[in-house]
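Sat 14:20. Reprocessing the chain from the morning session after the first attempt stalled halfway. Input below, unchanged.
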Amino acid sequence: MNNPYIKWLLPHLLSIVVLLIAALTYFAPIAFSGKEMSQHDVVHAKGMYAELEKYQEQENREILWTNSMFSGMPAFQIWGADGEDLNFLGKATRKIFQLFQSIKVPYALMFAVFLGFYLLMMSVGMDWKFALLGSLAFGLSTTYLLLLEAGHLNKLLTIAYVPPTLAGILMAFRGRWVLGGGITALFTYMQISANHVQITFYFFILIGFLGIFHLVEAARNGKFDTFIKAAGAVAIGVILGVLPNIVKLWTTSQYANETIRGTSELVKDGTKKDGLDKDYIFQYCPGKLETFSLIIPNFMGGSSGLSFASDKNSATVKQLRSMPNANQLLQMTRQYWGNMASSSGPFYYGAALFFLFVLGMFTIKNNILKGWALLSL
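Finished this time. Tokens:
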């Protein structure tokens, strides 16, 4: 026990075991009783790639195109969600994060979110006990549970890789250029291979602002050489992470121009339509006022799939039922009144976490991280 490496390792092993138990416990009916979660997008996906399964089984080769979706599309966008890593390190990382399970296993994805955030907390020097609590609070937010319920699996897996990617970037800017650049490369690769590039796109926009904060700080302190080394390590890491995915990204980019995301030949009011309408793009994005749902449960209501008539404990509902035709009215009302076309429930992190965030703004001495955190919020 006097071995310093064992003393360092034991708390982290204990944390990982706790995170694993938490994920298995939350999804105990699935993990231990053979139950399945009815995930809308997963059910749809089975129909999408039924054709691919058929031809792959018949011809015993990878099928690159499917005619079952739209007017035809690249098969890798709907098939092979677990991915085939080109390197041993990527394959090993994926298996560890997903507990050697399929992306369709909910407790494995929850563990991936736990583990990714724990790695970030340890990279910034957080005490392992607080890192463990923070990881549980992060992973158990309704945001990710709703993604699991809806079957947005690739999105959630990409989110799981975001914190360790940030960990690598922060390491590089703290002088650990080789290790930080290497971790950035690995998890940039893992993010893109998880095949939900929208999350990665938004993440690196925020990283661009983080770079600007570091650049301003370097200008004030006259440490441009340190900034250039750190930024160079991050840039090289990102490039190395992107390159193994370049074929998929390039093919998708070419294909996108032939879809509704490109320029259409159809003319409306004398002009060609270029890309998607703003209303279409943001129809499943929470409105500005819905931001308060992150700290106030049901600020804009609950699930759009539920009517007020389903609330059996509501005194208002009981009173209205005594009125003529009130039941019809109750059935037509939704428990959600936000901006999105539909919602399974509110994205909620918790008032306690928000309080800790505000407290951190007064206690964190690193002005760069403090300013970036406020901007990201």
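The chain has 18 helices and four strands.
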